[in-house]
Structure formats: structure tokens, C-alpha cells
Amino acid sequence: MITVDLLSSAAEGFSALLDIENATILLIATLIGLVGGVIPGVSGPMMVVVFLPITYAFEPTQAFILLTVIYAASVYGGMVTAILFRAPGTPESAMTVLDGYAMAQRGEAGRALGVGILASSTGAIIAAIAMIFLTAPLATLASSFSAAEFFAVALLGLSIVASLSSGQVSKGIFGVGLGMLLASVGNDPMTATQRMTFGVPSLGAGLELIPVMIGLFAIPEVLRKSRLNTNVKFSTDYGKVRVWSRENVRSVSGVTTRSGVIGTGVGILPGAGAVTAAILGYSQAVRFAKDKSRFGKGDPRGVAGPESANNAGAVGSLVPLFALGIPGSATTAILIGAFILHGFQPGPNMMSDQSEFVYTIFAAVLAANVIALIVARPLIGTLVRVLNVPYPILATGIIVFCVLGSYSLRNSTFDVWVMLVAGVLGYLLMQANFPVGTIVLGFVLGPIAESNFRRALMLSGGEWTVFFTRPISLTLISIALLVLLFPVLKVLGRRVLNLRRLSSLGSK
Amino acid sequence: MPSTTTRAARSLGPYVWVGLAVLSGAIAYLGTPASDGDPLNSPGFWPVLATVVMAGAGVATVVSSRLNSGPGPTDEQQGDHAEHKAVDSQDEKPVRPYNHLYLPAVLATYILVLPYGGYIPSTVVMALVLAMLLGVRRFYVGVIVSIGFTAMTTLIFAILMNIPLPSGRGAFVDINAVFF
């Protein structure tokens, strides 16, 4: 029964894509994502926040086709500079450098790009199909949740701070706290009491998410690059790109499929994400290979593994977003903010109440990757030439769009001030190696956690044990704590092992 | 070799997080009204909890920096920042060392001028100054870029999306009225 409903919802989603406006936006978003992913310094989160204000006037389906497809396609574009110039366009493509650049050095850049295109699309298509079939059952499981469970889910979402701030967990937790604090400025969600407004009328409605996100993701990168020499010319010589050659299909199909499945699984896990997926994709490519000696020296399987896994991971991270309303990465945290801005609350209710809307987005992500597979090869020359658009011109455009995007939310210069202050703060934090994505995580999930926490307390008559007496809530809180404490436990475990090793050496 | 001042700044760095947490705690405490009800369900609980999280994380940062006084995290450990390092490792030396100060100053001036000058004149001037600061070499290219982006954003936001942009005051109202 569920399968029939699911298939009919999926069919409705695909038929909605046949609408000429939806199809045009899908095509444009795919191209924007591909182009943005190629340019180093223009990240996926930055593109989503810069284009978010344009969606204010859009119908919600079109707005989210644009944003989710830009996100999915941006991961795809990151491999081009990773292969040609040893400079990954996105962090997800860092592993692709190892063999992709080595192939380019050997004069096989065209083949590396072809393998990358084939693997990226295949991985993302595997994940998109999994998303269509897995999200609804997961959301059905979550549909019986009460406020206590939703608080626990929000807490689980906040615990992904550990992955957003790898190596800097304490700073990441600080960022989550800061985000929660900033989000609580303005009206108290339960009593409408004013909090931390200090009599400033503009603060009465609170700080808007969009200017904060634009400030934190777009402005710091522009400030950082504005100080550097950006007049670097990239060579556009890469040879002939072959995607569907027999040689490519034979040599990488196994790795691509395996990495696609692994990447999807990793993406679905809260707290993992596309970067982890790429690392696992590469390591499994090495593990399953009979001849491991060529890895790192230009093996096409070393390109296919991480590229298939990172694209699958990026798409897979949309599953917890739609099924549970928790983000799997900084960009999906921004997407949650975008949903809230358009009046939606991602999670099980959205899956049941707006299933056509959700499946149209799923269909768009799948279609975008098929389009990317078709257009990437003829477009590769243009994508490489885009790299040579002078950064001063690009940055000027980014700033003008950021200013107007912040202003147009409420037609208020106050929001532009918020963007500027968030931008300067973001720049200072970036200089201190601070993971700014965690502030957005706290800003987006903090109010959801607070309102469900207080609603659960009210429903239980003020009994705080309600979070620990309900099995699902207790399980989710335990998982959140484990995810959060894992990096600390890992470090402690390593230290204990080192101490044991030292003491055994000493006794010898 | 790092100077004494740099070393002192580095060793004091982690304490900044604790200081920020304490400052935020004071703002949260002073900015939320007292409540007689259940403290866990009061308007002040969540902001205070946020600052407690910040303070705890700040203390953890101090402790971890004391324990790990060795080399900093690798590129891999730094996640998102690894990208920047990989991309710019060829040329990380600043060629315009004060741009991170000039750009916010230009933006702040622009926000102050915007209600008076209106969108078109203020944005054209701001975009031109930014383009020149960011490294556009020829003045006429800067002019084309600034007019181009202003026209593009006016078309998208004011004309297609019907968003009322600032029309300025006095004579600037007439100038802006020509475009939207």
C-alpha cells in the first residue's frame, strides 16, 4: 500500500517537472550549480544563500527546485578544478585531487574529467532513487512523534556540530550556543515576551535568518579573497573528454556503484555528510582493487570512488532533512532555514501533507543529475573558461546581490546592517579557524528545539523526566550524545593506546 | 620565530571564547525579564542555556589548547577551511592587506547613504568603489561593472519581483523614479 502511494506521489512529482516553468528553473539551476561548483571560493552554501532572496517571489515548488538543485549540482562541479589544477572547487572534491590531478599530469585530464562526470552522476542518481524510496518510510516512523521526540530530533540535528567542526569540536559547540542565543533575540515563542531587544524596535521581531546566513557564508569569503592576488590565469587545455567510452564503463562501473551506495548510506546518517562519504568512497576503491599500486599515481578508480560517493552523500543528506527535519550538512541547515522562510517545516508532517511538493523536489534532484550527465561534457569547456572570469568582477556582483538579498526580505536597511555585522563576525571567526556553519545550525535548530522542549514540558505538567521516559526520545538523545562525544572518546582512546604502548616499551 | 607579543596573543586566544561567553551571559541575563513560573519554561531559560553551552565550550577550548600546545590541526581536520588552503596555497600572501577593513567601511557608508541617495545612485557608486578596491584595473571597466550589476539587480528585484527599493530623498527621488 505504502509502495503504491509512494509510486503515485513520485509519478506526480515527475509530472510536475513537465511544467515549462519548473523545467526551465531546473535547467537553469543545474547550470548555476555546475558553474558555481567549479569556481574556487564560491561554495555550495554561498550559492544557496545568494540565490535564496531571489526565491521570495517564487512559488514554493519552484523556489526549492532552484535551491536544492543548485546545492546538488555544486558538488558535481567541484571536481573540475580538483582534476585540472589540484584545487578542489568544493571541500567534497578534495579526495579527487589524489588521482585526478595525477591523471591530468600524465596527459589524461580529458579521461579523468569523463570518469568524474560518469561517476558523479551515477552516484547522485543512485542516492536520488534511494531518497525517493526511503524518505517516506522514515517519515512514517517519525509521524507518531510528540514534542519530546521532536526536541530529541532537534538535539540530534544539533549534534552534527561534531562533523561540521571536525578537529575543532569545542569551537563548533560554542558556535551552536552563539547561534541559539542570536535566534532567541525578539519574541519568546510561548509567551511573546520580548527578549534581549533592549528597547530597539528593529530587534522586536528578532534577527532574520537570511541576513545572518548571507553575512556568515558569503561576506567572509569575499573579504578573505579581496586581500589576495586573484589575477591567476588557468590553462584551459584539457584534451578530449570521453564519458561513455567502453574503457571508462569497464574500468569504473563497479567502483562507481559501490561508492554510490556507500555515499548514500553515509549521507543519510546525521553528522556524516559528503566529505566523509568521499573519504570512504576512495578508501573502498583502494580496498576492493586487485592492483592497488596505481592509486595516487593516476588511477581512474581513484577519481570514480570519491566522486560517486560525494555526490551520493550530498543527495543522501536530503533524506534526514525531509524525513526528520534535521540537517546533514551546513547547506542542508540553510535549506531548513529556506523552508521556514517559505512557511514550511521540514519533517514527517511535510512528507504527509505536501507529498507532491516534496516528490517534485526529489524528481528535480534526480532529473538534474541526468541533465548534468548529458550537458557536462559539452559544457566542460565553458566551465573551465568561467574560471577565468576576473574575481574582482565576480565579488562585486556577489556583494551587490548580498546587500539587496538582505534588504528585500523586509525592505529594511536594518537587515543589511545585520548582514554586515554577521559578515565581519564571520570573517573574524574564519581567521580563528572557527567553523561558522555551526552558528547557522544553532540559529536554525535552536528555536525548533526550544519550542518543542517547552511544549513537552507544558504537556507533561513541568516534568522534565518526560525526555527520558519515552523510549524514542531517550534513544535519540543517547545517539545525539554519542555523536557529540565520539570525537572526544576517539582522542581519549588514542591517548590510552599511546600510554599503553609507551608503558609496554618501557617495560621491555 | 614568533614574537613575544604573537606568542602572548596565541596563549590568550582561547580565553577570548570564555570572555565572549561571559559577555553573552550578561546580555542574556539583563535582556530577559524575570519570570515567576517554572524556570525551565521561562523566557530566560533558553538564552541562559545558550550562554552556558558557550561558556562550557569556551572552557573546553582553553583546556584543549593547554593540552595540545603542539602544531595546529591539519587541513583535513579543518574541514571547510581545507578548501581555502588548497585553493590559495599558491599565493596566500596579501597583496591588498587592508581590504578586509576598507570593504566593510564602504558597505557601512553605503547603508548610511542608501535611505538618502536611493538605490540606483548609491549602488552604482558603492559597486564602483568596491570593484576598484577588489582589483579592477581600468576605471571604465569598473563603471561598466557597477552599472551592469545595478541594472541587473534593479531588473530582478524592483521590476520582476516588485520589491520596493529605497527611492531616496529630495532630488534623488526623481533620479530613482526613472528606473523603478
Task: Give Rg of chain A in angstroms.
Answer: 23 Å
- Helix content percent band of chain A: over 70%
Major sheet details of chain B: none
Largest interface in this structure: A-B, 91 and 88 residues
Structural class category of chain A = mainly alpha
Give the proportion of residues in helices of chain B: 55-70%
Structure explained in plain terms:
The complex is a heterodimer of chains A (508) and B (180). By secondary structure, chain A is mainly α. Chain A has helices at residues 2-17, 20-38, 44-51, 60-85, 96-105, 109-142, 147-158, 161-164, 169-183, 209-217, 219-226, 246-268, 274-288, 300-316, 318-323, 330-341, 348-353, 355-386, 391-410, 413-431, 437-459, 466-469, 471-507; strands spanning 186-187, 194-195. In chain A, 74% of the residues lie in helices and 1% in strands. In chain A, a hairpin with a 6-residue loop joins strand 1 and strand 2. The longest helix of chain A is centred in the C-terminal third of the chain and has 37 residues, at 471-507. The radius of gyration of chain A is 23 Å and the shape is globular. Chain B has seven helices and no strands. Chain B is mainly alpha-helical. Chain B starts with a helix and ends with a helix. The longest helix of chain B has 28 residues, at 4-31. The radius of gyration of chain B is 24 Å and the shape is flat. Chain B has helices at residues 4-31, 45-67, 80-88, 99-117, 119-134, 139-160, 171-177. The interface between A and B is large, with 91 and 88 residues.
